[in-house]
C-alpha cells in the first residue's frame, strides 16, 4: 500500500531530491499524481502541464510522478542500522545465524547474541556518527537513539529528507552530550510546535545550517532552538538582509559565506554581538565598508573575512 503524504513533504527518486507541491489527478490520466519540485533542474516544466498550472516552481524543476515511484524517507534508527548496524558481522556469520541446524542451534544462537551484544556495545562507544544523505525523514517513534548512542558528541544528518524542525528536535535532543550538529541541505518548511531551553542542548556549541534556502529570519528562528550555540555556519543560503536578534548574543563565530548580503550598514548590526571573534562574509554582494566613528565596532572581533566581494572602498 502506498503511504499518503502531504504538501511540503520531501521525497527522492534515485539520487534526486524534491518537495511535494501538488497531490491529485492530472487529466486525462486517472489516479493520483504527485507534483514534485526538484532541487535541481531535472524536471520537465514549471508546474504547468497542458496549459493548466498545478503548482509553481522554477523552469525545468517540475515533474509529475506516481506515488509508488517515490521514496519518502526512513527513520533515524533505520539509517543508523544501515550505516553502522552490520559492522563487524560478515555475510557468512549472518547466514549461519539465520540458517540454524538442530545440532548446532545452541552454539550458533550464542554466536548471534554475542555479535548483537558487541554491536550494541560498539554503538554506545560512538562519539561521532555521520547519517548524511541517507533519506532520513523522521525520528523513530520509539526514540531509541538516546539508549543506542549515549556518548554521541558529533552528529550529521545533512542532505536528508527532513522537512520539519520537530523531527530535527526529536532526533538531536536525545543526545545530551551532543556538541556538534550538522543539518545542512535539509529543506525545512515547518518550525511549528518546537520549543527549546538552554538545558535541551546544554552542550551544543557548533551548528551547521548550510544550503537550506534560509532567509535571515529563518536563521534566527533556527538559532532560537539552540540557545547556547557559539559557532554557526549558515553558508550558501538566501540571506539578503540582516537585522538584530537576541538569538545572536552567544555567538563567537558566524559564517555567512555564499549569501546575498549587500548592505554594510546591516552587517553593522552584528557588532552588537559582544563575544563575536570571527565573522566570515566571503562571496556576498558587499561593495562598501564603513565603520562609524561614534560607535563601538565589534569589540571582540579578531578575524573578518570578505573574500570574493566587489568592494570598491
TrEMBL record:
Q: Which residues belong to any copy of the CAP-Gly domain?
A: 24-66
Q: What keywords appear on the UniProt entry?
A: Leucine-rich repeat, Repeat
- Tree of life domain: Eukaryota
Q: Which residues form a coiled coil?
A: none
One Pfam family it belongs to: LRR_6
Q: Quote the protein name from its UniProt record.
A: Tubulin-specific chaperone E
